Amino acid sequence: VSRPITFLEYVVIADYKATEKKDVSLNKGRTVSVVEKHDNGWWFVQFEEKQGWAPASFLEPKTKYDKGKDDPEALPQSEKFEAISTYKKTLEDEVGFAVGAVVEVMHKMMDGWWVIS
């Protein structure tokens, strides 16, 4: 007999709409359990009766939000930035914008990419 299997809990930091059958759509603020992490940036998650693949860049460890918070589902404040150059999207999961556009940054990735809304 082994110990019960426990999964790490993560909080969704931005809405994500599934694009393939094996993916799962996520809503900002939802807590999910991460079952499996792949190096390609896609993690297998489960919540309620749903499960599927989701982009890791939309998830943050739940413990980050539990410390000193009255509401464990609360997300950190976002930041707003004004674009100083135009960016033309090249992939479907990217967002294009013009010079002067104000974007709300939900999450800054270590590889230099940001999740914006």
Automatic annotation (TrEMBL):
<dbReference type="GO" id="GO:0016176">
    <property type="term" value="F:superoxide-generating NADPH oxidase activator activity"/>
</dbReference>
<dbReference type="GO" id="GO:0005737">
    <property type="term" value="C:cytoplasm"/>
</dbReference>
<protein>
    <recommendedName>
        <fullName>SH3 domain-containing protein</fullName>
    </recommendedName>
</protein>
<dbReference type="InterPro" id="IPR036028">
    <property type="entry name" value="SH3-like_dom_sf"/>
</dbReference>
<dbReference type="InterPro" id="IPR001452">
    <property type="entry name" value="SH3_domain"/>
</dbReference>
<keyword id="KW-0728">SH3 domain</keyword>
<dbReference type="InterPro" id="IPR051228">
    <property type="entry name" value="NADPH_Oxidase/PX-Domain"/>
</dbReference>
<dbReference type="Pfam" id="PF00018">
    <property type="entry name" value="SH3_1"/>
</dbReference>
<dbReference type="GO" id="GO:0042554">
    <property type="term" value="P:superoxide anion generation"/>
</dbReference>
<feature type="domain" description="SH3">
    <location>
        <begin position="76"/>
        <end position="117"/>
    </location>
</feature>
<feature type="domain" description="SH3">
    <location>
        <begin position="5"/>
        <end position="64"/>
    </location>
</feature>
